[in-house]
Amino acid sequence: MQHLLSGLILWLAGTGLALAAVHPVRGFLPDLKFSLQGAGGTTITQQAFAGKVVLMFFGYASCPDICPTTMAQLAQVTEALGPKADQVRILFVSVDPHRDTPDILQAYVDQFDPHAIGLTGDEASIASLARRYRVAYQIERPDPKHPDAPYEVSHSRGIYAFDQRGKAVWLTSDGESQEELLAALKPLLR
């Protein structure tokens, strides 16, 4: 029954239909684990964030609305933490590896928060990570005759929180208030 409830919560968060709420997911989602590309051609894994609370969000740099709004919201949350913001890292994982290079992503997240890291990878790496955390996304294939033409990307809207040991602790939609996010985040900090 709990597995069914967890799946429903994740589905609702992905569709944007759920009422805003922070949902505990300890034991329902796997630990933080990935190997992706960061700015400067570096390979970054979950080990780089040992001892930090991680807020992970999937999106893409040319997203017109959801991603910049969520990144601004997460930046406000970390800013409200004051000196404790150093204990938190925002990971923005691109679901659009065709356009989002690691350097483009880092420039994008730097506009919002100095504690944010932009990550991408090849299609297989992104798909694997998305499956791991039940993230839904779809990319309209670029036209090979017009590779620079715009195309659509859709994605689910969850914010995932992991504790300092990389354990998944909660999931919320991007519609949660700053106050609720802070209330859920503060108990994870030292």
Which characteristics define this entry?
single chain, 190 residues, alpha+beta, two-stranded antiparallel sheet, 5 helices, 29% helix, disordered N terminus
The sequence of SSEs as H and E is HEEEEHEHEHEEEEH
Radius of gyration: 16 Å
Question: Which spans of ≥5 residues are poorly predicted at pLDDT below 50?
Answer: 1-19
* Biggest sheet: strand arrangement: 1-10-9-4-5-6
SS element count, helices: 5
Oligomer: single chain
User: β content, as a range?
Assistant: 15-25%
Distance between the termini: 34 Å
Share in helix: 25-40%
Per the principal axes of the C-alpha atoms, what is the gross shape?
Answer: globular
Secondary-structure-based class equals alpha+beta
Look at the structure and give the mean pLDDT. Answer: 87
Count of strand segments: 10
In short:
With 190 residues, the chain is an alpha+beta fold. Helices cover 29% and strands 24% of the residues. The chain is globular and about 55 Å long.
Break the fold down into its secondary structure elements and pairings.
Blueprint: H1 2-15, E1 22-24, E2 35-38, E3 42-45, E4 53-59, H2 66-80, E5 88-94, H3 102-110, E6 116-119, H4 123-132, E7 137-139, E8 153-155, E9 158-162, E10 168-173, H5 178-185
Q: What report would you give on this structure?
A:
This protein is 29% helix and 24% strand. It is of the alpha+beta class and 190 residues long. The termini are far apart. The model is unreliable at 1-19 (pLDDT under 50).
